[in-house]
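#lab-general

N.A. 3:47 PM
ok so I finally got the sequence cleaned up, no stray characters, all 244 residues accounted for. can someone with queue access submit it? mine expired

B.Y. 3:52 PM
send it over

N.A. 3:53 PM
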Amino acid sequence: MQPPVQPPVFSLISAAKRFGHRRVLEEVTFDLADGEFALLLGNNGAGKSTLLRILSTLMRPSGGQVRFRGRPLHEAGEAARRELGMISHEPRLYGDLTAGENLRLFGALYGVADGARSAAAALERARLDHVPDVPVRAFSSGMTKRLALARLWLQRPRVLLLDEPYSGLDQASLELFDQYLREFRAQGGTALLVTHQFTGGVGLCGRAVILHGGRVVYNQAAQDLDGAACGRLLREHAAGAATA
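B.Y. 4:20 PM
back already:
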């Protein structure tokens, strides 16, 4: 007897988002399978960040359907949030708290056992163990991103939503983040990556989805993605796209 087919992690069917009369997303349809790494491309204003905010449950769509593992996302909200990890333009960290306090707080929210020790270990992996008592408001952009990465190590999500995770990272931090993504993929994790910096994480993706004008204009399996390939796809499928 064949095992039952598992539903996609995310399934979007004609998903739409409007702000007043302005259409940001229109008729967006695609699936993200369990264990899949997909790259979401598009020019500025294409609707990529809005789409990630919907998938992360921070925003409701104006129309269509968004499902998480077969259930409507608004019904699966808490179950989905337990699986989801996110790095975006907004760090979602508490600036007045120290790095250690932030991680201990998130550890408590995630139900992490031995939260203090786990937080210290996550800071060490993110190369922030020298600043555990420094308020996050004093951090550079790169340090803030590394603290967000430490939060992922603490949380251990099964699904990643990544909105420009490489911005503000120096070379050492880029390598650290790429290492995290390689380990996450090897463990069967699922990810949707939005980036204009076509570094190592892009090469882990096996599918490219392109948004243009709030619509999906390309959705194909892809191999050997790199800067040149991503630039070519954008030029062919999104008018006026900048080269990689």
